[in-house]
Design a protein that fits this description.
binds zinc ion; TIM Barrel
């Protein structure tokens, strides 16, 4: 069966869907090492709010880190980084002290997120850091019990901060392991967004082959792990052309647009950092989509799509195939 036939995930009358999500949201300010949303209207979240005000159907998922500790995304302890085995046992760059960016210690930030209209919060790790060469990839060799402990600690911080969250996660560094997937189920998560592919040509059968999970659908939500988790692929970012967005819509897909709250991490520039330039580009994309497709587009969120698919057990190619986990 072709994937085009599997449209049960869309509400009737809708030809395609739009989701927008922002990663790395945390209380860091420009007066800290770098900004991750903590400057509120004066930073990345201000650009987001501007977009939400201009596009009244747009929704957003803010993948938020419970207690952000990353400073540099790449090793700065260069000598240590050259020593195999030993380097896996150390943080290869300075990291922030525990609890400095703990959500519950930043009530103004939490209050801002709670007041933001048409925004939902998803999980984006506990500390967003790991020992060894791949600093931002928080989940690597840990077993399922350890992953469950980390996720439970993150969730406890959201609850302590009084910040509601949807039952979904984008793993830091896009990396979902088998142990992490088991842990997500153990703590009651329902969806994961762990693939980014902005290069594979758009088609109904296209599978992901870039960052994170490979071999899942490029343009449709897909059930993985025997149907127990719903997977979303981020298939569009700042460097993507408008024709990619239109191709995804024309094929009845889910256009999942990604941005990052952190634009500049100590000189490491995120191409899809949510600055004024990217906000202006997204404004143009959203305007084109609104004018061309009107009411036939489902402006939704990952949390809403996941809830709908769970209500409709046959939606999103249930049991059609087991993704490569
Ligand atoms: Zn991240």
């Amino acid at each position: 069966m072709a994937r085009e036939d599997l449209r049960g995930w869309l509400p009737s009358g809708k030809r395609a869907a739009i989701c927008f999500s922002v990663d790395d949201v945390h209380p860091g300010k420009i007066t800290d090492a770098y900004e991750g949303g903590g400057d509120l209207d004066a930073g990345a979240l201000g650009h987001l709010r501007w977009l939400l005000e201009r596009h009244t159907r747009l929704r957003v998922t803010l993948f938020t880190t419970a207690d952000w500790r990353e400073l540099s995304p790449v090793p700065t302890r260069k000598v240590l980084a050259r020593i195999p085995f030993l380097r896996e046992r150390f943080y290869l760059a300075k990291i922030l002290p525990k609890d400095m960016m703990r959500l519950s210690r930043h009530p103004e930030f939490v209050h801002y997120l709670k007041r933001l209209e048409r925004a939902e919060v998803g999980l984006h790790g506990l500390h967003h850091v790991h020992k060894g060469m791949r600093l931002p990839v928080e989940f690597q060799e840990q077993d399922a019990a350890e992953c469950t402990r980390i996720l439970s600690e993150a969730i406890a911080i959201f609850e302590e901060a009084g910040l509601d969250y949807v039952r979904g996660m984008n793993p830091p560094g896009w990396n979902v392991t088998d142990s992490l997937a088991q842990a997500m189920l153990a703590v009651g998560l329902q969806f994961v967004a762990s693939a980014r592919d902005i290069v594979t040509p758009v088609s109904a059968d296209a599978l992901t082959n870039m960052s994170g999970l490979k071999g899942v659908s490029l343009i449709y939500p897909e059930r993985i792990l025997g149907g127990r988790l719903l997977h979303f692929t981020s298939n569009f970012q700042a460097t993507s052309g408008v024709e990619r967005a239109l191709e995804i819509v024309e094929r009845g897909g889910l256009l999942a647009i990604k941005a990052h709250a952190v634009k500049n991490a100590l000189g490491h520039i995120a191409l899809d950092g949510l600055d004024k330039l990217y906000a202006n580009y997204l404004d143009l994309i959203f305007t084109i989509l609104e004018e061309r497709y009107g009411d036939s587009l489902w402006w939704t969120s990952m949390g809403e799509v996941a809830a709908r698919c769970l209500d409709h057990p046959h939606a999103a190619n249930a049991g059609m195939r087991e993704a490569a986990l």
